[in-house]
Amino acid sequence: YGDGGPWYIPTREAFPQGGYEVSVANCAPGTDPEMTERIERLLEAAG
Predict the structure, then answer these.
(1) What is the distance between the terminal CA atoms of the chain, rounded to a whole angstrom?
(2) What digits encode the pLDDT tens for the residues 12-44?
(3) How far is CA 31 from CA 10, 17, 20, 25, 46, in A?
């Protein structure tokens, strides 16, 4: 998510693979599933 810049949020599968995108990401492993869960909760609450 985010096209490989510092705002990029790698998937949990991307972290073990490494690479440029993961090295410039400003988030920790586990951010992707946490954000997905929170977005799902927001959508459910919105109706």
Answers:
(1) 25
(2) 899 999 988 888 888 899 999 999 999 999 999
(3) 8, 16, 17, 11, 22
- Distance from C-alpha of 42 to C-alpha of 40, rounded to nearest angstrom: 5
Enumerate the domain spans of the chain.
14-46
Q: pTM surpassing 0.70? A: no
Q: What token pair was written down for 42?
A: 């927001």
Cβ contacts of residue 9 below 8 Å, gap of 6+?
1, 2, 25, 27, 31, 32, 35
